[in-house]
Structure formats: C-alpha cells, structure tokens
Amino acid sequence: MATPSYSGSPYSSWMRYFSPTANHRRLGLVCLGVGVQQGELPVVGPRFLDHHVAVVVTRGRGWFSHGGRPPQPVTAPALLWLVPGVEHHYGPDPRTGWDECFVDFTGSSVEAYTDLGYVTPDRPLVPLSGTAGVQHVVDGIVRAARRGGPLLEVEAAAAVHGLLVALRYARAEVSRHGDAVMDTLARDALLPISVAEHAARLGMPLPQLRWAVRRSTGEGVKEYLLGIRLSRAKELLARTDLPVAGVARRVGYEDPAYFSRLFSRRVGMAPVRFRAQQSAGRTPPTARSRR
Q: Where are the beta strands (DSSP E) in 67-132?
C-alpha cells in the first residue's frame, strides 16, 4: 500500500478519521479511523482512549506498555489491542522504526466479539503468524476512504467485522485450515457420543479439549458441536423428506423429542416449522436428495 512521504520527516504516514451517525452506530460496529505508517515513528502516549484500536505491526520491533505495566518487547508481526479507558504507551525501536496499520472502532458488538475471544483486552499484545489477510482488509478500508461517497460509513463498518475475523486467523496459534484437534472434532461432530468420549477418541484430557475449543472458537465444546449438528439438521430438513426422528439420528440424537427441544431453543422454531418455511414454493424433495 503506497503512503505519502513528508519532507524532512523520518517516517511516512497516511490516515483518515470517520464520524458515523447514530443510524450507523445501530449496525453494532463502526469504523472511526484507519491509518498506515512506516519508518521511525514517534512514541505514542501515555494516553487513554474512549474506543478500541487494533494496531498491527507488520515490520520491525519496539515496545508496548499497557495498563501502566512495564514495557514489553514487540517483534513483528504482532497485534497491539488498545482498549477504552486503559492507559497505553508504545513506540518502535528508534534505530530501525517499524511499519504499522491501525483501525479505530467501537460499537455494541465489541462485547460479543470479546466474549467469543476475537478481542482480547486481557491479552493486549498478540503474536501473529502473518499479516497478509489483515493488510488486505485494511487496504479495502483505505480505498473506501479515498473514494469517499455515501456508502463509506457502512462499507467501513462491514470491513471492521472482516478485520476481526482476519486478526483471529492471523494469531500465531490459529490455522486457517484448523488444527488436528478441531479437524477431528468437526469430522466426528455428528457421532452420538458425549464430550468426554470425544476427548477419549482424541487421546486428551477433557479439560485440555475444552481449552483447545475455547481457544479456537471462543465457545464451549457442547456449543461448538451443537452448532455443527444443527447446521446439518437444517440442510436435511430443507432438502430431504426424512422424518424429524430420522434427521435427529443423522445428527447424533437418538431421542427426537430432545433434538426438537434443542433445535427450537437455538433456531427459534420447531423442526417441522423450519421445514415448512424452507419448503414453501419449492419442488418437494426427491429420492435423490435423500441419498
């Protein structure tokens, strides 16, 4: 991404700030600013903010202090989370500088992303495995900002959701293709076995399995498995004429009444109603769709 250079300055800097309206904020997540900087950047802080900022260091090294704690070394690629109301202070090594991009954001959805483990206020310095995906999202916000227009605020807000996903994948401990534990768990999700039996099949203690799933998804094992099972159940209900009991067995539940209660609680309607809703105006399922 090209950035303008400023004469007499040891670094280059480009940034834009946005002022979303009350209607934009109803989206749940809005972008307040974006920037790209390179070189021997000045030290930031100590300061406090009233919103979140994701600072992604793409090249170089430096230091980061958060919440008044002693500075920690930063080596690219790395993510610095700046969170509302917490003092932060950081800067690159003056001998080498660093390259960074940043996105300012806020909104009610941040709480949900935090609960799911995408935003980690308790872990403000996060090593990354790479930054290509993150930079692609930031490039998109920069292009939108330069282009301007009436869709800018909504386009930038949508990009913040993409940024949080890209940052989740960029963490050093997360693989886009999943690790062996998550791959196996997803493959076996429809088997009619307990969480403890899943752990045994994986050859790991139950607490370790819970930790692995929480780290990767931000959810518990049961919730993760339930999501996979219900997604498959929806496909079967929409595309086949299997009875509800047959669908329940296909996704790991021997008791159709229990399956129906789970489905109704998560989806908001009973399986038979979901099928009727999806089938309205469509050709009835054929024998081929039941295969």
A: 72-75, 78-82, 88-92, 98-106, 125-127
* pLDDT at residue 6 is higher than 90: no
Sort strands 11-17 and 44-47 into parallel, antiparallel or unpaired: unpaired
pLDDT digit string (tens) for 235-261?
999 999 999 999 999 999 999 999 999
DSSP 32: E
The reported pLDDT for the residue numbered 174 is: 55
171 DSSP assignment: B
User: In Å, what is the CA distance from 240 to each residue of 139, 218, 227, 233, 286?
Assistant: 43, 32, 20, 10, 7
pLDDT tens by residue, 160-179: 999 999 999 898 665 444 46
Residues forming a β-bridge with 62: 74, 92
Model pTM score: 0.75
Cα separation values, 4 from 33, 38, 86, 158, Å: 17, 10, 31, 26
Whole-number average pLDDT of the chain: 89
Please give the Cα distance from 191 to 201 (Å, whole number): 12
Closest to 33 (Cα-Cα) out of 149, 167, 138:
138
Contacts of residue 5, defined as CB under 8 A and 6 or more positions apart, other chains included, come to 12
User: For 167, what's the count of Cα atoms within 13 Å in the CB-facing half-sphere?
Assistant: 30
